[in-house]
């Protein structure tokens, strides 16, 4: 792997992809793509992520571009629909974008909203899809009491699991004990991907399920090793990537020895534009394939010179931490 900064900068293509609906405060997703010896890799840490964290995402992108992927044990990945924190009226329209998905992940605890908003959104999903598996993701937005209250308020909708209800590992552990009787699994996402030690949450017995993402965990190989060592069931999820990044997620999910849950890799449906034929759910799954951007789409969605320069600066800042 050639990791010299100048050559990495030469290989980098930055694109700006509009979303169909606002998601985690983002309306346009910027991603950097690298071509390499094995294919294309995606580097798309969110803009507020510091260089050290962004470097782990960069390692993942470069590994995926330059090395062959681990062997897959399945060729399609069942995926969930991901529902941003929209109002009930908008739910049906967003869900219609996910062809054949039997599982819905609903964003909750959005800043500026209330538990009533969450209940209304989840109730709408349940009304539209009586047989769906429904999981919620709070992105650590609740304290323990709020989380307990919310879980009890949402329990009647039959939840598959609650993802990152609280921000810290001790809070997750405490909540897990408090809601033990409800038998709703607790999943850890940020406590894995943003933690100094991604295994701590498993060791602390603070979660039942791990959410794993290839980019933040430093690549497919490293994510596979973390899951193996944690010994917990894992859900592979996206980082709101373009189809190139989604294909890296699919490679991770494809290589997992066991895949008990639908994966959060249907988010291509939230993009209004992509760099290739979009990797979106068809009959509830996406294929395990390499995705190669087309020169036309790379050109059409190329970021402005200012934004490209900003990404070059990010690359230079992350590079020493590789
Ligand atoms: O898991 C999914 O269904 C889709 C991916 C997803 O929800 C996320 C992608 C990117 C950033 C995160 O805020 C968010 C998550 O928290 O899981
Ligand atoms: Mg999450």
UniProtKB/TrEMBL annotation:
In terms of CDD domains, this protein maps to:
OSBS (cd03320)
Query: Where does this protein hold Mg(2+)?
Result: 137, 163, 189
GO MF term set: magnesium ion binding; O-succinylbenzoate synthase activity
Domain Mandelate racemase/muconate lactonizing enzyme C-terminal positions = 88-185
Q: Which cofactor does it need?
A: a divalent metal cation
Q: Which UniProt keywords apply?
A: Lyase, Magnesium, Menaquinone biosynthesis, Metal-binding
**Transmembrane feature ranges:** none
At the top level of its lineage, which domain of life is listed?
Answer: Bacteria
* Any Pfam family the entry gives: Enolase_like_N
Q: What is its EC number?
A: 4.2.1.113
Catalysed reactions, as listed in the record: (1R,6R)-6-hydroxy-2-succinyl-cyclohexa-2,4-diene-1-carboxylate = 2-succinylbenzoate + H2O
Q: Does the keyword Metal-binding apply?
A: yes
Q: Which residues form the active site?
A: 107, 213
Q: Which GO terms describe its biological process?
A: amino acid catabolic process; menaquinone biosynthetic process
Presence of the UniProt keyword Cell inner membrane in the record = no
Under the heading InterPro entries, the entry gives:
Enolase-like_C_sf, Enolase_C-like, Mandel_Rmase/mucon_lact_enz_CS, Mandelate_racemase_C, OSB_synthase_MenC1
> Pathway, per UniProt?
Quinol/quinone metabolism; 1,4-dihydroxy-2-naphthoate biosynthesis; 1,4-dihydroxy-2-naphthoate from chorismate: step 4/7; Quinol/quinone metabolism; menaquinone biosynthesis
- What does the record give as the function of this protein? Converts 2-succinyl-6-hydroxy-2,4-cyclohexadiene-1-carboxylate (SHCHC) to 2-succinylbenzoate (OSB).
**What family name appears in the similarity comment?**
Belongs to the mandelate racemase/muconate lactonizing enzyme family. MenC type 1 subfamily.
Protein name, entry field: o-succinylbenzoate synthase
In its UniProt entry, the species of origin is given as Agrococcus jenensis
């Amino acid at each position: 792997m050639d990791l010299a900064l100048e050559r990495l900068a030469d290989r980098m293509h930055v694109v700006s992809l509009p979303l169909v609906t606002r998601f985690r405060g983002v309306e346009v997703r910027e991603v950097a793509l690298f071509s390499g010896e094995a294919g294309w890799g995606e580097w798309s840490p969110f803009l507020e992520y510091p260089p050290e964290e962004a470097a782990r995402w960069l390692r993942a992108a470069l590994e995926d571009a330059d090395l062959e992927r681990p062997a897959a044990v399945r060729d399609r990945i069942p995926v969930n629909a991901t529902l941003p924190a929209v109002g009930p009226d908008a739910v049906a329209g967003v869900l219609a974008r996910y062809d054949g998905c039997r599982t819905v992940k609903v964003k909750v605890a959005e800043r500026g909203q209330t538990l009533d908003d969450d209940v209304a959104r989840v109730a709408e999903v349940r009304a539209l899809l009586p047989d769906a598996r429904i999981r919620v993701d709070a992105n650590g937005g609740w304290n323990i009491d709020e989380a307990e209250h919310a879980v009890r308020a949402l329990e009647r909708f039959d939840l598959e699991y609650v993802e990152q209800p609280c921000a810290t590992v001790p809070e997750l552990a405490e909540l897990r004990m408090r809601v033990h009787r409800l038998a709703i699994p607790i999943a850890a996402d940020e406590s894995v991907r943003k933690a100094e030690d991604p295994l701590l949450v498993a060791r602390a017995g603070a979660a039942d399920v791990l959410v794993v993402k290839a980019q933040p965990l430093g690549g497919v190989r490293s994510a596979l090793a973390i899951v193996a060592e944690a010994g917990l069931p894992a859900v592979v999820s996206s980082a709101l990537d373009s189809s190139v990044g989604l294909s890296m997620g699919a490679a991770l999910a494809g290589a997992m020895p066991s895949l008990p849950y639908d994966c959060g890799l249907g988010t291509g449906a939230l993009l209004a534009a992509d760099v290739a034929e979009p990797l979106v759910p068809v009959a509830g799954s996406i294929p395990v394939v390499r995705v190669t951007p087309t020169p036309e789409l790379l050109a059409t969605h190329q970021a402005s010179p200012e934004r490209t320069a900003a990404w070059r600066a990010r690359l230079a800042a992350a590079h020493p931490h590789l």
